[in-house]
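Morning F.,

Quick status update on the modeling queue. The single chain you submitted on Monday has been processed. Sequence for confirmation:
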Amino acid sequence: MSDRLTVGLVGAGPWAGMAHAPALAAGPTTELAGVWARRTEAAEELGARFGAPAFERLEELFDACEAVAFCVPPDVQAELALRAVRAGKAVLLEKPLALRLDDARRLADAVGEAGVVSQMVLTARYAASTREFLTRAQALRPMGGVAVFTGALADSPFATPWRLERGALLDLGPHLVDLLDAALGRVVSVRAQGDPLGWVALTLEHEGGALSQAGMTAFAGGSLPAPRVEVFGAGGHARLAWPEELKEPFGQMIAEFAQAVRTGASHPLDARHGLRLQELLAQAEAQL
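Structure tokens below.
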């Protein structure tokens, strides 16, 4: 077994080329073992950029690696990650786990039954600035918080059918709910208002009594600010400096994934955590 974890990449779209492939190929803890995509030519093009082979069959990719990273639409991830888990592979998963909550539960349950390592790509959580923010926020004896995330899908390479159909809640919501959950305490209830294809407003109640609000849209226009997350408490105020680049948080994420696989240790941002976020967002979506 090599010192570097061999990771196969499923997906060859814009996000895979911007984030997953360069981070996995850069090492030093991982090696990009190959790429598979529904369009073989896309897999070949991405693999060639990073010196990795492309595979025509998914099982051939599984045979060439110890772990699999997914960068595909959530309905596709729900199906293909299930196959990887059943093949005994550790999995690096995008959010949301699946489009349907039942499929997300099936995948998270399969991860647990197989006893493989899983980890969610909640990018901001791996940044040093985020971890510093969470340490400050938790020390404030927090009472409440606010988070805002605005995106612009118009003319975006990320204007995929599932995002256009479901809007911000499943795409941007996992980031905001996860960060507020980490800063203020476990979310125990959610109330939602708005329009999934317009503005969505969430009120979250946390263990211990703190309250937070999260607002989001995927359909804003013009020049948009960085996502905003703030926490207020008896001990003061903390504001997150959202990571501006992908290299640092993705590098940290990949290093933690490799360590978890090598040691067999569970990661706090595992598939079960991803499922909990999706259950909360499903409750919110049902109220809209």
